[in-house]
Specification:
mainly beta, 6-stranded mixed sheet, 5-stranded mixed sheet, 44% strand
Length: 295
Amino acid sequence: YQLIGVQNATAPFCAQVINETAIITALPLPTASISGTTTICSGNDAAINFRGTPGATFSYTIDGAPILQGIFNSAGTYSLITPALNVTTTYSLVSVQYSTAPFCTQTLSQSVTITVIASPIIPAISNLFACESFTLPALPSGSTYHSAPGGNPSTILSGPITSTQRIYVYSQTGIAPNACIVEGDFLVTIYNALQADNPADVFQCGAYVLPALVVGNYFTAANGGGTPYFAGDAISSSIRMYVFSNTGTMPDCFTENSFEIVVNIPPRAVTPPALVVCDPNSDGFASFNLSDADI
C-alpha cells in the first residue's frame, strides 16, 4: 500500500504530496503432521515422529491428557520415544503456531494410535534332572515345547524326554507381522543306571561263596540298605540278597534285583566205638546190638 498525498476535505482544499508505503506480508499457516509405530508388544516403547514448519511450536496430547509441546528443528522434524506401554495409546496433534510474531496458529486433529498386543507369558523352568525319562509339565494355552529355537511346528515335543537335551518353550500372541513372541529354554539331564545283575536263586549245602558281579553290589536290604557283602564272602545261613546298582547322582538313579540263598546244613556223621561180642558156638556169626554203640 502507497500513500501519495493528503488534502483538506473542504475549501480551500489545502494539499500536501506524501510518498509513504506500507507492506502487508501474508504468511502461510504453519503445518505439522504426525506418524509413528502403530503396533507393539506390551512392555515395549514406540517411536513417534512429527514433521512440520521449521522453528514452529506444536502442541499434542497423549490419550487426551494435558497438552504437551515441542519445537521443530531447522529440518522441520521432531521425534520422541514413548515410555514402555502396556495399553493401547493415542498421540494426537492439537495445533501448531509460529514461535515468533505474529504467532499464526493452525488447529490440527491428526493422531497416531499405538496398538499394544499383550505379550505372552511363559513359566520360568529351571534346569531339570531325572532318572530314565522326564514327562514335560503342561504349559499355558498358546505355548509349546520344542527341540530347537524358533517355534517351528516340526520341532514340537510332546512325549517323555528320554535323553539329555535342551528344551525350548515358545509362545506367540497376535499374527505376523504383528506378533509378540516370547521364548525360553532349560536343560533336561537324564541319568540311566546300569542294569544290575540278576542272579538265580541258590540252594546250597553248606556255606555259599558270593561270586563276582558284573554290575552292582550285594546288600541285605532293598535300595542299597542293610549290610554290604562282597564277592568272596561266605554266606552260612539262608537270606534274601539284593544286587543294587546306582548312578550316585542327584537324583540317585538305580536298578535292583534280588535272589534267595537257601543254605542247608548237611548232617554230621559220628564215628561209633568198636563193638566186641563173643561167638558162643564158634561158627563165625554173632548178634550185635548197635544201640550199645550210641548210634
